[in-house]
Amino acid sequence: MVDTFAPPARRALNAHTVLKTTGLLWFLVAVIGQWLFAYYVIAAYAPETLSGSWERWDETGLIQGFTVDDLIGNLAFISHTLLTAVICIGGTMQLMPPVRKRFPALHRWTGRTYLTVGAFMAIGGIWMIWGRGSRLTEIGGWGTTINGLMALVTIAVAFYFAKRRKIDRHRRWAMRTFILLSGVWFTRLGYMAWAILTGGAGMSRSLDGPFDIFIAFGSYLLPLAVLELYFLASDSRSGGIKLATSGVMLAATAATALGVFGAWSMMWSPHV
């Protein structure tokens, strides 16, 4: 709680502490959700891939997984899918201050791997949407395509600032990259949280309902907007802005936790 009778400098410090704490709380929930997603991806797809039972990929309810006589497309799909685990684990590790401070060499090499794999996945995802036809709607395809293009931009900028040792600027662009490369993850969480709260209002099986259209873009634009608000509040000297943003972060944490719970219960755990 912020002491309203404390000096302005102390109130600002207290508000900043509250903001940092709510940001950390969201990140802890995100780490749990990202690692659960990574576990699901490995458990659901690696055994079938290694055993040669590629047709079983589709048992998880994919838009387009295994396709007969499409070796290149199948390899593109499974490499894209399994590398999701690298993105989830590597991305969260990059944002952990203890890892960054105590193991700088590991942080650098993990970061290079993360950005390289992220670029590969962004390009591969766009190719699968338009080259392989892995989409149910045009609007959904464009939503994911824009997500991938934005990720390629943030990856390039994050790498640029890292090479020039502008660490603070690199860190913020790396966080933007983390949000954008988590677009598919946010989509699943968004669907599950919305379904639990509203019973699926605005959703359709063909993914062309109002909520389906919203989540095609909102899955990454909304979390990105929250991140930008967090940056703004962190830089602000206003305790009021920091506390208001802390409230937003708590709401984001609750929504993320609900989405993780729903995704694990209904989408991921049945296939592991």
Largest sheet report: none
Residue-averaged pLDDT: 90
Structural class: mainly alpha
Order of helices and strands: HHHHHHHHH
Unreliably modeled segments: none
Distance separating the two termini: 42 Å
Number of strand segments? 0
Walkthrough of the structure:
- The protein is an all-alpha fold.
- It is built from nine helices and no strands.
- The longest helix has 44 residues, at 8-51.
Entry keywords:
272 residues, mainly alpha, 79% helix, 0% strand
Short description:
Helix content is 79%, strand content 0%.
Task: Break the fold down into its secondary structure elements and pairings.
Elements: H1 8-51, H2 71-94, H3 97-102, H4 104-130, H5 138-163, H6 167-181, H7 183-198, H8 210-235, H9 239-268
Helix pairs in contact: 1-2, 1-9, 2-4, 4-5, 5-6, 5-8, 6-8, 7-8, 7-9, 8-9
